[in-house]
Amino acid sequence: MSLQSRLAKLSHVQLLQFAVDACESSPELKNKADALIAQVAPLPAWCVDILMSPDLLPQLFSSLGLSEHAAAGVCSTWLHAYRRQLRRCRYINPTSLRRLADVPDQLQPVGLCMLPGGVLAITSGPGHGNDAVKFVAARNDTDQQALAACQASTLAAGRFQWLMGMARTNDGLLACNLDEESVALYKFAVDGLMDELATAPALAEYGRGFGRCAVHQQTQRTFAVAISPGNESNAVTILDSHLQVVATVEAAESTEEDGPIRDVAVHGDQVIVLTSDVHPKGPGLRLLDLDGRFLRTIAAGQLRHPHAVAASHGRVFVIDEELKEDDEDDEALVLHVIEIHSGNIFQTIPLEVRGRDISSMIVDGDEIYIAELDANRVIALRIAGSEA
User: What pTM value is reported for the model?
Assistant: First the structure.
């Protein structure tokens, strides 16, 4: 008996289900089915006008996420609408990961800061001979003259104890320092020879210095993570534009050496303090005002072992660890994108990284730069749709 005869014995419902299953398993067969459907029952002109309307498409695509990416394949108009939606939502594209080629081997990158002209400043770990700041091209369009000037500067030739996190001010580059009680925070010029402009000493109770820092651009206040000699206690130190201490807030202790405060960021008029799993309140994001007063906590109970934080466009980006689905005894690094207003995790991206120690992260324009300390490299993730 032929296949046609056997299929004729099936009911309409059975044939319909069979056809649906076949189309879902074969893109080529689905395309043929779509063409036949269009011939038998073409969409009316008014419907086509609506589906291609530049005024209505943004509303239609506002309900779509990354899982509905097939919509971008309908036509070029829908592709551009989908890309605009991804850009508006600032989704991170996990497939766009690239490694910065000019980072020196064995650098052990610790701190990152973007300078004018697309020059990326990088501090190095103690295994690199207590080196100075390195400067590399962050993008293909990096200003080569600006890069050369930085590489020939006094700062590039200097040697320091252990420079850590960095941040930009209106007129300088801040660099935190560990293991030298005389200087805990340096400020360097961002032009010319990048000479030293000012310093701040370590606090008596946090004699190891500062690990991470962030700057509020309007007031030029600096928020730095202060570290005790054994790293069992941390605090956030607020400094004014002259690097004079204004206040020390958010003091916390733990019995571990990892430290209860991992990182700090500034977004708008809010200071975001990333606490670790050994913090008395557990891992999360504590939001403060510019005077250090506690406002609220977000993502509490949603993080496991966070490494670094950055903030941009109403979102907080956190490097964290999650248990692998196929191995509950092992963890993998992920990037959480968290909405500041709601505190909800907007997107979680598995990170294809070599090491397990993420030392720093910054957001610049449409890219996120991540420093892998033990893998000796800096990688960049691109925000999806930014090429549209």
Answer: 0.81
